[in-house]
Amino acid sequence: THFGFEDIALRDKQGRVNRVFEEVASNYDLMNDLMSAGLHRAWKSSLITELSLPRGARRFRLLDVAGGTGDIALRALKRGGPGVHVTLFDINPAMLDVGRARTKEAGFEKRVEIVEGTAEELPFPEHSFDAVTISFGLRNVPQMDKALAEARRVLAPGGRFFCLEFSTVDVAVFDKIYDTYSFKVIPQIGKHVAGDEDAYRYLVESIRKFPPPDDLAHMMRTAGFERVSYTPYTGGVAALHSGWRL
Ligand code: SAM
Fold it and tell me: How far is the CA of 189 from the centre of ligand 1 (A)?
């Protein structure tokens, strides 16, 4: 076979990720509140503000990679004007089903396109979007460097990429509390609320393995993004990175 050990490890990771989100899809929105103690709402709201969506009829095409149940898509459609069109993209059909139902119920059916696939190989031509977002998604993608290069490729020149993700806590005392919360409290909540301790344990581990903010910024520059910067949220529990395709 032409698959090396590395390919097998990558496919293993993706398989595990897919099982986790398949399991949690119907509980996903509750899970988000629990994992971030409700803070993801404020962080996502800041991300939407940074997008500077047109309020009028000007066309604006947003691609939300690893968009899951459509949280970012819905917020962007609610905040922006009628020219805002969103492509909700995810590898997991169970998550997308929830996203389809939510965007339809909110009356945005005509301005949302739902596409299934992997962030490592986006099925869109170069220069297709004015902005690309990935929110709590990048850490789940086995080949992050590929996902970053793909996000840049599909952006139009002058377009901007945003990555919202859990990050590295930089306040010592807070760090201890955060450790206890992540390794003890979250898996227990997962067990009682979603009946799935392992899935939540995976989520906590994936957060810890994610590159610290300066390393992620470096990866983004390597992928070709310019004017890369980041803003820590809530003492570094999360961070918003951004970069431009110029
Ligand atoms: N963006 C949403 C949010 O902020 O609430 C959902 C984030 S959820 C924690 C992570 C999502 O990443 C899941 O829906 C999962 O299916 C998706 N995902 C995992 N691996 C992926 C890949 N290789 N390509 C695209 N999406 C992927």
Answer: 21
